[in-house]
Amino acid sequence: MSISNSTDVLPIQLLGKANDLIKDLSKDQLIWLGGYLSGLALNGQDIDTGELVNEQRQLESNVELTVLVGSQSGNAKIIAKHLSELAEAKNAKANVLSMADYKVKNLKDEKNLVVIVSTHGEGEPPAAAEDLHRLIDTKRAGNLSGLNFSVIALGDSSYKNYCQTGIDFHERLKKRGATALSEPLLLDVDFQDQLEEVTRETLKLFKPTESNISDQTEKATTNTVSSNGIYQAEVLDKVLLNGKGSAKETYHIELSLEDSGLEYQPGDALEVFGVNDESLVNDIISKLELNADELVDLKSEKIELKTALQHYRELTLVTLPVMKKLSAYVTEPVLNTLLDNRDELDKYLEGRDLLDLINDFRFKLTAQQLVDSLRALPPRAYSIASSQSEVGDEVHLTVGAVRYEKNERVHEGVCSTFLADRIATEEKLGVRIKQNEGFRLPETDKPIIMIGPGTGIAPFRSFIQERAESGSKGQNWLFFGDQHFESDFLYQSEWLKFRKNGILNNIDIAFSRDQEEKVYVQNRLSEKASEVYSWIKNGAYIYVCGDKDKMAKDVREAFVEIFQKQGGLSKQEAEDELLAFRKSNRYQEDVY
Hints:
The protein has 592 residues and is of the alpha/beta class. It is 40% helix and 19% strand. The protein has 24 helices and 21 strands. Strands 1, 2, 3, 4, 5 and 6 form a 6-stranded parallel beta sheet that branches. The chain has a 6-stranded antiparallel beta sheet with strand order 12-9-16-7-8-13, with helices on one face. A hairpin with a 2-residue loop joins strand 10 (295-298) and strand 11.
């Protein structure tokens, strides 16, 4: 069949044949086919169906991949989904599986494997990956000499054991005889801009050559993603939640999503694109004796140094990779000595920002070298404090402003103080929905126990609003804590209203500074151990949100003790029981 260069409309019988040919094609394949046919027509060429069939066969020869996902906040799932869609566009196949549901014994039967896993806490695997992470280092994994694999590791370079879980998987798979097709690919918190390249290059590892047609399909896929879901949201309202005399500064912030088309679920987070404090930027530029107006290259554009630092570079947090890059512009040996001792380095970096570093060492570098050495300014994620069923085209946040004294000056959290001080109502800021599949209400009317001290209360406001709007019959129990009852009982009137109308069945509070002996939410859990265990036996789901370093660990220990004493279990059995709850999503955490 050939199609001429005529502008005539196709006869009706040809339209029927065309529909039969394209009905099973995916969106990306249709995009490519349209471009392919247009290109031939513009060049006055006839279509050789034999050539087209050969190209199609080449696409269909692509390998089948197993993609194992271990996710804490949902980022690993985002990458896996993108990889799967790209593979489908190339007529390859990517079978995406959760590590929580995968049997280690199946590894020996795999041929091509992609591991996408995040690192939780201080180098720990997420709950879904815990079993596989452990068992893959044992003989139960078997001989994996027939397996080719690649690892995509997610982490935050501000932590000591950056991407450690992914590195562990890489080393343990190699130890069992598997062939690594590349070194582990380490992704920082600002990985979104690398999403296309990461998935494309990973897929190429398992296929030695790329055809021109698949490259065109790839370009079509890339072109469909342009905004990364970022929306300029207007600030509708901002209210200080703490009362007079509080040592804290917590804000309730309402943003408009009108006409954005953005949707979110209870448990999701909102990524906020903050802006660095202008005075901090000016001090850094002045101390380095640079010109604020000098143009630097950033994202294929020329922009002024001050703009680059204020909007696009991390200044309030110094990570190890940044330290290593900056060390090239310091002549003093002290910095290199510090880099050689990780424990001392971690102690030094704690609470320090870029200006501290510049004050402590003498740097000699250009504006471009400075910009190139710093990591991109990532958005900060805040648990959403509203249900869309209740607030419609709005999204609410609960934000604690971070301020502290160090080295005889005030340090501030970049995004929390941007929201508190440097953005006003009716102004706009960039936001993006971040789905959190690991923190979801149960689908049925199961009872829920919510533990959220301080700003950890945010997602539970969305949970209760959602259950009120949906008419859920599930029971709800809230444990909340902060410093003082009089000044720090966040959303007190709302909780009392929900308690009065029967939506909130139980509420237990712990205000640590209102008595001589400090009392925390884990203490309240222990005091109500018998009733808590009764709720658990009746199918309750448990949710914990807030500080990961101490609170989350103390709450876990409280539940282990409840399982142990109320259930008559040994400590090991109680710990296993809690792990089983986590793996089955009956114990979910959103910690930071």
